[in-house]
Amino acid sequence: MKKIFLINSLLFAFCLLNYSQNIEEMYFHKNSMYMGIKKITYTYNSKWKTVYFYNKQGLLERQINCFKNSKRADYHFEHTLTDTTFTIKEREDKEHEESYRICRYLYDKNGNCIKMEVFSSNKLDIPFVVSESFIYNDDNLLLEYKHNASINWKYKYFYNNKKQKIKKIEFDDDFEENAITTVFEYNNKGIIIKEDMLYEGYNLYADGKYIFPYNQSKPMRIVYLYEDIDKHGNWKKSYYLTEKGKVFRSKRKIGYW
User: What contacts 24+ positions apart, CB below 8 Å, involve 217-224?
Assistant: First the structure.
């Protein structure tokens, strides 16, 4: 079964699609989860559209962001892979070769990431983002790590006896009361069909036009439903779940090699 899982950062979840996909977390495990995927097109209720292009090794090569069918960004990715390192060069378009960023991963013998650094083209000696302090269990499942950028975040993961991720907690390492807790729900085939996210310590704005919380209570809760599963186990439509029912969020079209 070919499965893909898009990791939702806070910015991505709120449709701020003027930046590239969160490639930092895509490659925490050396074996890409996108193997077999050729192209994914996301269409959102906010009129944004994002198209991802992958090579046969499952690596992201290009990303195009559009708003109302007008192209707003075009990202290109180049990859260098060795036994213990993986480097990605990202630039917004081919006309600006001098401006780019570098993501560099270091892996252990099991293919698990033990450090990730992000550099900008104007300062290649000092990273502006570092993920480190990775902890895995005996099954090579990620338990926690630290993400140091403008805000220092810590991530913790919890699993059931089927080795399925059932909960993720991300919080400000300096202010633990600022936390995002996500609970995952699966169907009987082991496919994620629901993400229930609770934002504690945040004053988030949900406009009721493109972003629909479960309710307006505090802390804010946002629930995603994934439906219309294809034969490879990948969803084609997503919805917000509210107290009054489902609201359309996005659809995606997936092309396979």
Answer: 221/196, 221/197, 222/13, 222/197, 223/194, 223/195, 223/196, 223/197, 224/8, 224/194, 224/195, 224/197, 224/249
pLDDT of residue 213: 87
| Sign of the torsion formed by the C-alpha atoms of 57, 81, 109 and 20 | negative
Torsion region of 249: left, alpha or beta (phi above 0 gives left; psi -120 to 50 gives alpha): alpha
**Tens digits of residue pLDDT in 16-63:** 222 334 445 678 887 666 778 999 999 999 999 999 999 998 889 999
CB 209, CB 195: distance < 8 Å:
no
Point out which residues pair with 143 in neighbouring strands. none
How many CB atoms sit inside 10 A of residue 26's CB?
Answer: 19
* CA distance linking residue 55 with residue 59, whole number of Å: 6
Which pLDDT belongs to residue 16?
29
CA dist 152 and 170 (Å) reads 10
What pLDDT is recorded for position 94?
62
Read off the tokens for 197. 């996210």
**10 Å Cβ neighbour count for 126?**
9
Q: How many CB atoms lie within 10 A of CB 193?
A: 15
Instruction: Identify the residue with better confidence: 13 or 151.
Output: 151
Cα–Cα distance measured from residue 167 to residue 184, given in angstroms and rounded to the nearest whole number? 6
Q: Any idea which residue has 């077999």 for tokens? A: 36
Give me 44's structure tokens. 């959102």
Q: Say which amino acid occupies 174.
A: D
Which tokens sit at 154?
């810590």
Per-residue pLDDT of 167-178, as tens digits, reads 999 998 777 778
The structure's pTM equals 0.84
pLDDT of the residue at 246: 95
